[in-house]
Design goal:
about 170 residues, alpha/beta, Rossmann fold, 2 domains, four-stranded parallel beta sheet, two-stranded parallel ribbon, 10 helices
Length: about 170
């Protein structure tokens, strides 16, 4: 599909970014890997690409409310939070980015019994206090599956993927 120009879009940051980074060094066919990498987009990158090209004009509500964003580590390191913020703002959200590092989960690290307390401590550094302090109507956004799990487990709040936040901001009338 990539060779035909069909975008490869992923919702889990680590999965799609691995295609753009690590796969280039692992693939036997380097030219094919480069084609795949060039056509691989995170969900927010693809949404904003289409919005900015005028191919996607969703019927957003006038005010989607407040969104509190926790950026996925891999995504922050390779792409940054800017494109996610742009997508949320395009949908009518007032956005605040949590100045957090890792959520503490680090893939399956936090699921392991031996790492549970370290995982909790990392999440409690900045992320969980910000999540707990957020007003009840605030939409907590985290693109990473493990990040959302960690927020729900230690932060006692439900976090949604960007795709869910954008769907909630659509004008349904």
């Amino acid at each position: 599909y990539a060779a035909q120009g069909v975008p490869i879009v992923g919702i889990e940051p680590s999965c799609i970014l691995t295609l753009r980074d690590e796969y280039l060094g692992l693939a036997a066919d380097k030219a094919r890997a480069k084609t795949l990498a060039a056509g691989a987009y995170t969900f927010e990158e693809f949404v904003m690409r289409e919005v900015e090209a005028g191919r996607f004009n969703a019927p957003w509500r006038a005010d989607a409310g407040k969104a509190l964003l926790h950026g996925h580590c891999h995504h922050k390191a390779m792409v940054g939070n800017e494109v996610t913020v742009k997508a949320l703002k395009a949908a009518g959200y007032a956005v605040e980015v949590i100045p957090s590092g890792c959520c503490g989960m680090a893939g399956d690290f936090g699921y392991e019994v031996d790492h549970y307390e370290v995982s909790r401590a990392v999440g409690e550094d900045r992320l969980m206090p910000a999540v707990r302090a957020a007003a009840a109507g605030t939409t907590i956004v985290a693109s990473g599956t493990s990040c959302r799990h960690q927020i729900e487990h230690f932060g006692d709040r439900h976090a949604v993927h960007l795709a869910e936040a954008l769907a909630a901001a659509l004008n349904q009338s």
